[in-house]
Amino acid sequence: MMTTNTTLSRQYFSRRLVVIGLSLLMAGACKKDDTDAPKANDRLMEVVIDNFNLSKFKAAADRSSMQPLLTSAGPLTVLAPSDAAFTEAGYPTTLSVGTAGISLMTRITGYHILNGNYDLNKMPFLFNQEIRTYNGGKLYVTRWVKDKDTVLTVNGSRVLAVGMKASNGTLQVIDRMLEPYLYETVTEAISAEPGLSLFSHALQRSGLSALLKGKGPYTVYAANNAAMTAYGYKTLEQIEAADPGVLAALLRYHIAADRRFVYDYILSTGSSAATTQNMLDDNIVKVQLTPDPLSPGLYNGITLQGPGNDAPVKLVKQNGITGNGVLHITDHVLKITK
């Protein structure tokens, strides 16, 4: 009888010890959770510092005094241009970033930061979805499928790395530095370009400048001064003397009632590498993708060609964003007829 009682007692105390042990483990787990609050050393600024390919973005954050923001509680989303993207934008070294104008770097860095956690890979499959930046600017995100791969772009810039997590947000690496837009309308952006003075005056003379001040969106393929001169409009006086209706007919063939970045064509074009763009006058322009010489089988640009153009028209400047559209600058006038 005593043996039976002893056995039962041992079983009872063994069970009690198991319960106590589990309770202690649970208490320890709860205590660990309580101390796992986000720390400054695993925040977005630390992610930037730890990534060797983002040394120029770190220099930009330093120059613009954005470090406190990137170590704040957040949440934030950072679209960080790679070092190669800064080089392409004219900043070959960290020193060139660190000695740039403070107000410029503040605008640029703030344009690459979003309030909130944005999972770009969960956005709808649509072109140019508008989101707002930390400093109030507009960005346009595209999520699309190309050759069975999901591709993300921001203002036509490729997203290279998605969802590098920090305790106060997310960081994505992009292949081009995004320039904050300075102009609310395409008309203003064209007027501000010294090399588009003839095209700008033709817009005013034709009456189309008022249209491009509207809500939009519009994409303008503006012929530079050399192109306008070659076409026959060599001076402002010649344009002023031209028939406004003739000018309007010419310029409507350079405007699309849509927001179109270069990479939008690359994403939406099939295996033929050729597509068309409907213009404001209801005529079409042929769009041909240009191969990327560094990546066989891929494309990195476009050319345009109207029925009257003997050769493809090249873009000398692309993806200039404004509040109501996009500006591309071409090296020839687009022609409907020869």
From TrEMBL:
GO CC aspect terms: extracellular space
PROSITE patterns cross-referenced by the UniProt entry: FAS1
Domain FAS1: 41-178, 183-334
PANTHER family the UniProt entry points to: FI19380P1, PERIOSTIN-RELATED
Name assigned to this protein: Uncaracterized surface protein containing fasciclin (FAS1) repeats
Originating organism: Chitinophaga eiseniae
